[in-house]
Amino acid sequence: MSAAVLTAAAAGRLGCPVCGRAAAVASAGRRCGRCGARLPATGRRPLGAVWAWLIAGVALYIPANLEPMLVTTTFGRDSASTIIGGALELFALGSYGVGVIVLVASVLIPVAKFLAIARLAAHASGRAPMRPHGALALYEVVEFIGRWSMIDVFVVAILAALVQMGFLASLTPGPAAAFFALSVAATMLSARAFDPRLIWDRAGVEHV
Amino acid sequence: MPAIGATDDGTGEQFVACHACDALLFEPPEGVRRARCPRCGAVLTTERAGSLDGVIAAAVSTLILLGAAVALPFISIDAAGRHSEASVLDAAIAAGGEARALTLAVFAAIVALPATRALALIWTLAPLRLGRPPAPLAREAFRLAVELRPWSMMEIFVIGVVVALVKVAGIATVGLGAAFWIFVALAAIAFYEDAALCRRTVWRLIG
């Protein structure tokens, strides 16, 4: 990497986070002259929004795992299964591949994403420095992969639709579906609120 | 939008800032196929010859296929000696009770948002392809298309359908209708569109 890269901030300019146009730093808080997006008032999208959405996502993830995702009625008896319980049922049915997909999408990805966003935000606030190239790679993975957590929500919605149309009589969606969908949406918003330039603002000269 | 005082100072034409690390760079010249930021390595442009054609074709195909995917039978079930078929539209109309919000959210993620995105992309890109000035509200339309991308979830829905089929396999015999395979095609088109669409190129052409 070249050591002689000038940043927009050092040149008194402010890059638009949407289209990249580098306006004068005095444009902060106004709209970008090229794409019309609002330029952050402080020059960077605020870290507070990242933490707020992340906390909402973690808080919603707790009832999402404690409440039932799917209630199955057999011979008049209700049996409720949580997200993890539903995945274990798939293992019990012998569908190991699909069970792994559900566990990865519903448990591994959300939890890893909580930790990754918290790690990036801690780095951006100067509390736990990371190597900037590694942090950027982590950010790109988090942005790309988060939406795939929605798989289990689609599964429950499809099963619920089959029940509504009278095809299946024995399944009802539980409250966890809504909690889980909102948790994934909140963490998607958290990741999108993170300004990757904060990674490099913290990197300083030693990592340029 | 360009009211006096409402926009930036108008001196940013020749420079761009890297979205990932804030490096100040010259605007990559037209025709550069793939430019990376020299500081952080983030991809800046992915422009290729004909990519505008490809994105427009993908958006038009998405609109046409979505129409078919909503109306054609999606799933067929044989249970207790009875055969029935249902489309995505049937499912959306039948939604009630606790499942209503969930079904409407899914309908938005797999039909309404992808259709809105496709319309916004055609609205923005077709005039550019024809060499005409940008359409009114082109900037807003393209920003909408970019912002909606993560929430358009056809490819995730396809995986969800497969998992749901495995779950009910013990209860009923479920078959896949034409609409399921159309969603598979829509997911593939979405991947192609992501690869073909270079946002910075479009912003340069609009701005």
Annotation keywords:
A: Butyryl-CoA Dehydrogenase, subunit A, domain 3, 2 domains, three-stranded antiparallel β-sheet, 7 helices, 5 strands, B: alpha+beta, Butyryl-CoA Dehydrogenase, subunit A, domain 3, two-stranded antiparallel ribbon, 7 strands, disordered N terminus
Characterization of this structure:
- The complex is a heterodimer of chains A (208) and B (207).
- Chain A has a three-stranded antiparallel beta sheet. Chain A has a two-stranded antiparallel sheet with strand order 1-2.
- In chain A, 54% of the residues lie in helices and 9% in strands.
- Chain A has helices at residues 47-66, 83-92, 96-124, 132-145, 151-164, 176-193, 197-203, and strands at residues 13-15, 22-24, 70-74, 77-81, 171-173.
- Chain A has seven helices and five strands; from the N terminus they run ββαββααααβαα.
- The N and C termini of chain A lie close together (7 Å).
- Chain A has 208 residues and is mainly alpha-helical.
- In chain A, α1 (47-66) packs antiparallel against α6 (176-193).
- Chain A folds into two domains: 1-43, no CATH class; 45-207, Butyryl-CoA Dehydrogenase, subunit A, domain 3 (Up-down Bundle), CATH 1.20.140.
- Chain B has seven helices and seven strands; from the N terminus they run ββββαββααααβαα.
- The model of chain B is unreliable at 1-7 (pLDDT under 50).
- In chain B, 54% of the residues lie in helices and 14% in strands.
- The longest helix of chain B is centred in the middle third of the chain and has 30 residues, at 100-129.
- By secondary structure, chain B is of the alpha+beta class.
- In chain B, β3 (35-36) and β4 (43-45) form a beta hairpin.
- Chain B has two domains: 1-45, no CATH class; 48-206, Butyryl-CoA Dehydrogenase, subunit A, domain 3 (Up-down Bundle), CATH 1.20.140.
- Classes of the chains: A mainly alpha (208), B alpha+beta (207).
- Chains A and B meet through β1, β2, α2, α3 and α4 of A and β1, β5, α2, α3 and α4 of B.
